[in-house]
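Dear colleague,

Thank you for sharing your sequence with our group. We've completed the structure prediction you requested, and as agreed, I am returning the results in plain text so they can be pasted directly into your records. Please verify that the sequence below matches your submission; if there's any discrepancy, let me know and we will rerun it promptly.
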Amino acid sequence: MEYVYIHGAEIPALGFGTWALRGNKCTRAVLSALDIGYRHLDTAQTYNNEKQVGDAVRESQIPRENIFITTKIKPPNLSYDDVLESFEISRDKLQTEYADLLLIHWPSSKVPIPESIKAMNKLQSDKKVKHIGVSNFSVNQTREAMDASKIPILTNQVHYDPFRSQSSLLEFCAENEVMLTAYTPLAKGRAAKNFQLKEIGDKYGKTPAQVSLRWLIQQKNVSAIPKAGSPEHQKENMNIFDFKLSSEDMEKIFELQGGIAEKLRSLIGL
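Please find the predicted structure tokens below.
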């Protein structure tokens, strides 16, 4: 496993996403992922599976401190009191004393960002949350969250894959020590069917999906959280730490979304 080291946190660069996993299927999938070696789990209030994630962590008997758990506050719960109250429910479902990372899932049109951040800061000071962040925020919204917070904003979790440019946000994150967490990193199956990714993968003996994930985590301060229901796909996604893409191949993948500016290239470590 490789890690992102930022603001005192050590985050596994490859995590396990649980969106759309429900009930026993979710518990089994998370147990399988933990058995394979995943130690970064991503859930959310809106996924309706925090309890199943918590059940799997408990059943795995892996020490809690060895698993990095992220959950997210849904938009209807973003007022100060609702953040505090809804997180207690999340904490009970997850069967944990703390979350490693708590995110605002989506910016609210009704609640100011500073109000939500103030509540998250309290949770951190009460040692119920180790780190805080945001999800689906623009550059300006991320900056507002940073300005409002007494503690660093650890990440902005957004949709990022080989075909979807996040150049402005990547540049902002690189300049401000914010991790970018990529959800839907395989473009809902599109990556697996792409000829250019297959051509690159053939050089390394890897699949297009593995090339896509390697491309993501090889960028500075970028992590990825693919969802995979079957052990076979979980293992495939995990098997990306025994090779490294060349600078030329990294650039070829960036070209799938229109290339990469020189300034951004240096900022994200290419």
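Summary note from our side: The domain at 3-188+221-229 is CATH 3.20.20.100 (TIM Barrel).

Kind regards,
the structure core
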